[in-house]
Specification:
The protein is 3% helix and 41% strand. The protein is mainly β and 221 residues long. Strand 12 (175-179) and strand 13 form a beta hairpin. The longest helix is centred in the N-terminal third of the chain and has 7 residues, at 7-13.
Length: 221
């Protein structure tokens, strides 16, 4: 069985109190919000509140994916997926970044399916907890209005990077996890079930297909 290691538990085991100052500032509410100015005519798709509750990792990272499903059917002209964003922290479970994979999966019926784009190995460059934004620059195929954006922890604990849940105890019903060769709804951490994974989409058509690094750790990091 694969077990989540929770930041709060690690802090208590080390004899430290749960730090109350690690939550980020709340972002705008709602599933869709305006995005950064550098993205022309873009939308940021999200289900989280912008404030994290717990940081989590698994003891085992390979083939362990965490992500959210999104539906663009109400604004189907926004087929260009520009970025995937993951909330993480370079300070835990150990200092610095190890890197992880991001990918976009198809959504067939009521569950995630095969990979449409990626996996792409990424390594954040920020030095503080917060949103890590990665370039996708890829257009959803015609007919694919629903998809899942996800991160794979990739490395085993403790040489890995964490992911986060928001501070809303009510599940939005859009978070998923993949382990033991199957997708299941994300079980959550202490009742918090909304993963902090977002995408930025726009109405431009992107023809560039990035080279997948797959499971090879880039030598450029």
């Amino acid at each position: 069985m694969r077990v989540l290691v929770i930041f709060a538990l690690a802090a208590l085991c080390a004899g430290a109190a749960w730090p109350s100052d690690l939550a980020v500032n709340p972002g705008p509410g709602g599933a869709v919000a305006a995005v950064e100015a550098e993205v022309d005519a873009g939308l940021e798709l999200k289900y989280d509140t912008g404030t994290r509750s717990y940081l989590s990792i698994s003891f085992y990272g390979a083939d362990h994916w965490y992500g959210n499903d999104f539906d663009i059917s109400q604004f189907s002209e926004y087929r260009g997926v520009m970025n995937i964003k993951v909330f993480s922290d370079p300070g835990w479970p150990q200092p610095g970044w190890n890197g992880f994979n991001v990918a976009i999966f198809d959504f067939v019926g009521s569950v995630p399916a095969s990979i449409l784009w990626g996996p792409k190995f990424v390594k954040p460059r920020r030095t503080t907890p917060g949103w890590c934004k990665f370039t996708v620059n890829w257009t959803l195929p015609a007919g694919n209005d629903r998809f899942v954006a996800a991160m794979e922890q990739y490395y085993d604990y403790p040489e890995c990077d964490c992911f986060a849940q928001d501070d809303n105890p009510t599940s939005a019903g859009h978070s998923w996890q993949y382990f033991n060769d199957a997708w299941v709804p994300y079980g959550g951490t202490y009742g918090y079930k909304n993963l902090m994974v977002r995408v930025i989409v726009n109405n431009a058509t992107v023809s560039v297909t990035p080279t997948s690094l797959g499971r090879v750790k880039s030598l450029y990091y």
